[in-house]
Design brief:
Helix content of chain B: over 70%
CATH class of the largest domain in chain A: Alpha Beta
CATH superfamily of chain B: MetI-like
Oligomer: heterodimer
Helix content of chain A: 40-55%
Radius of gyration of chain B: 22 Å
Number of strands of chain B: 0
Largest sheet of chain A: 6 strands, mixed
CATH superfamily of the largest domain in chain A: Periplasmic binding protein-like II
Strand content of chain A: 15-25%
Radius of gyration of chain A: 21 Å
Number of helices of chain B: 12
Order of helices and strands of chain B: HHHHHHHHHHHH
Number of domains of chain A: 2
CATH topology of chain B: MetI-like fold
Structural class of chain B: mainly alpha
CATH class of chain B: Mainly Alpha
Number of domains of chain B: 1
Shape of chain B: globular
Distance between the termini of chain A: 63 Å
Chain lengths: 320, 263
């Protein structure tokens, strides 16, 4: 028995030491042969296809960056992960980043993430209703129950703007929080009157006869920048060269993805489980390298107006 | 376990019949339209998705990640629970000092520590371990404390009269008394550890089956999502069977097990 205990104790000790070994460098930017290991917090959705494609194409390796994608549902872990140094970079929508900025969270955008196509009728997100719903236009959403993935974020501000632009009164809309994947079922069951969804849930709804009544990203601002990659201000100060290389690699990946939609559809299959038939048809977003500053200003304005953002975000501190 | 099955084949048959009925129900409900097959696919489609998944290296890597998180977390929790439990349990002053603290810390749900895990360790294995160990540790510790308190006072006095040292008393008196409690604690902890391993993966995206379930969900791959959920259930059954058979083997001498075998 004594031997067993000693054996177990040794095993635990070894495990603990091994655990420490891999965590030795809290910055996670250990350099080996001049290559920097970098962790990026992402959400496993269509939007982040360029970084996976860029990794496959070697756009990061050629700049001596070894990428590891850390993907979590909803991305709740991304901003705290970047600030605490668990991730070197993260992917987040701009309203979240603006909210973080007004709360003085030390982060800075390093490259564009994803943008709306800017085309009503062909965007990667929209407000959907059931086939037989009496709601025909965005204005009809006034006073209705609308599902968004996160309350007080990019979904509700942009949906309100759609309703406003269509001449409706957005003040009576009741927003409820439902994760994107559950929205087709929630809409079907009549738990909500309308649901704001993005791909591939958008395809799932339209495939069963659902209709899009508002293209909220298109209505919010022309060519809206939806999300961006960001880092901590600490890493920005400590490793400016790494940031420059990452931004360059990211820009190359974004342009490549934007001009090679077929390769994008293929790479999506590598990190999601989206059905190949859906993957072949879903609407891809745009991936410009430039952040549309005017659209971010609009998002900030809308957010402040709707009470989603408290205080005035300082864009010069957030954007590069 | 095997003994019981051999003696009473009816029990195993009933168990299988129950499973078959459940499968038939899941096959039938979507087919007759009680639930939409889009949100609950029939069992046969889930099985097909499971077969597809089982053909991918990604799936087996996820199973391995989940099992590593579970096993390592359980091991740490059991060793810590036993060592700390024996020390606290055999020193009355320590027990009095820690009693209220244990009662305060024990009911804190492990999932409430998710923000802490993310801040400390991000989304890797160590986050899973933190939550698994926290949840499993109390199961073991509390059982060990009960086990230690169950030592027969007369036997304890006798051991002291014979001048058995502290180590010998732990080895020959305390440990055999506490062992059934410890094993109960381990069995409970094994189940809790699996729940927490999958939860952590599902919520914060630490690699494993939970993360795969989350990816399947965001991808609207409904049959695949159910297939992975089924796998976590099968893992749970396997873990429980293994824990029970280990308990029987290690406690073959104990009256609680002998009584069960004789029945």
């Amino acid at each position: 028995m004594r031997r067993y205990i000693a054996g177990i104790a040794t095993a635990v000790l070894v495990a603990a030491v091994a655990g420490c070994g891999s965590s030795g460098d809290s910055g996670g930017t250990a350099t080996e042969n001049g290559t920097t290991k970098v962790k990026v917090g992402v959400i496993p959705i269509v939007d982040v296809a360029p970084i996976y494609l860029g990794q496959k194409k070697g756009f990061f390796a050629s700049r001596k960056i070894e990428l590891t994608m850390e993907s979590g549902q909803g991305g709740a872990a991304i901003v705290p992960g970047v600030v605490s140094g668990q991730f070197q970079f993260g992917f987040s929508n701009l309203t979240s980043l603006l909210i973080a900025q007004t709360k003085s969270v030390p982060i800075k955008v390093v490259s564009n993430g994803v943008a709306s196509t800017g085309k009503a009728g062909a965007d990667f997100g929209g407000v959907t209703v059931k086939k037989d719903s009496p709601i025909k236009t965005a204005a009809d959403l006034a006073g209705k129950k609308v599902a968004v993935n996160t309350l007080k974020n990019i979904g509700d501000t942009t949906v309100r703007e759609s309703v406003r632009k269509a001449g409706g009164d957005p003040s009576g809309i009741k927003f409820v929080e439902i994760p994107f994947p559950n929205m087709p079922a929630a809409l079907d069951a009549g738990q909500v009157d309308a649901a704001w969804v993005v791909e591939p849930s958008l395809s799932a709804i339209t495939a069963t006869g659902g209709r899009v009544v508002a293209w909220n990203y298109v209505d919010a601002a022309p060519n809206l920048t939806v999300a961006a990659y960001f880092t901590s201000t600490k890493l920005l100060a400590d490793k400016p060269d790494l940031i420059k290389s990452f931004t360059a690699a990211m820009n190359e990946s974004l342009s490549y993805a934007d001009s090679h939609p077929d390769e994008v559809r293929d790479i999506i299959g590598s990190y999601t489980k989206i059905d190949p038939a859906v993957r072949a048809k879903l609407t891809l977003p745009k991936w410009p390298t430039e952040i549309n500053r005017a659209s971010v200003e609009t998002l900030a304005k809308l957010g402040t107006q709707d009470g989603v953002i408290t205080g005035t975000p300082d864009l010069s501190k957030l954007l590069p | 376990m095997t003994v019981a099955v051999r003696r009473r084949p009816g029990l195993a048959l009933y168990g299988l019949a129950g499973m078959a009925a459940l499968l038939a129900l899941v096959e039938l409900l979507p087919r007759i339209g009680v639930v939409s097959p889009r949100y609950l696919p029939p069992a046969s489609r889930i099985a097909a998705a499971l077969a597809d998944e089982a053909g991918t290296a990604q799936f087996w890597a996820a199973v391995r990640d989940t099992l590593v998180g579970w096993a390592l977390g359980l091991l740490i929790a059991v060793v810590a629970g036993v060592v700390i439990g024996v020390v606290i349990g055999s020193i009355p002053v320590l027990r009095a000092i820690t009693a209220s603290t244990v009662e305060f810390l024990r009911p804190i749900p492990s999932v409430a520590l998710i923000p802490l895990a993310v801040l400390l360790y991000g989304t890797d294995l160590r986050s899973t371990l933190l939550l698994v160990v926290y949840a499993a540790f109390w199961q073991v510790l509390v059982q060990v404390l009960y086990g230690v308190a169950d030592v027969d006072p007369v036997a304890d006095e006798t051991a002291r009269s014979y001048r058995l040292g502290p180590w010998a008393r732990v080895r020959y008196l305390l440990w055999p008394t506490a062992l059934p409690y410890v094993l109960t604690g381990v069995r409970l902890a094994a189940a809790v550890a699996l729940v927490l391993a999958v939860t952590t993966e599902l919520i914060i995206g630490a690699p494993g089956l939970g993360a795969q379930i989350a990816v399947a969900q965001t991808s609207q791959a409904v049959p695949t999502m159910y297939a992975l959920v089924v796998v976590t259930g099968l893992l749970g059954v396997a873990i429980n069977l293994a824990a029970r058979s280990a308990e029987h083997r290690l406690l073959g001498w104990h009256q609680s097990v002998r009584a069960e075998e004789a029945a």
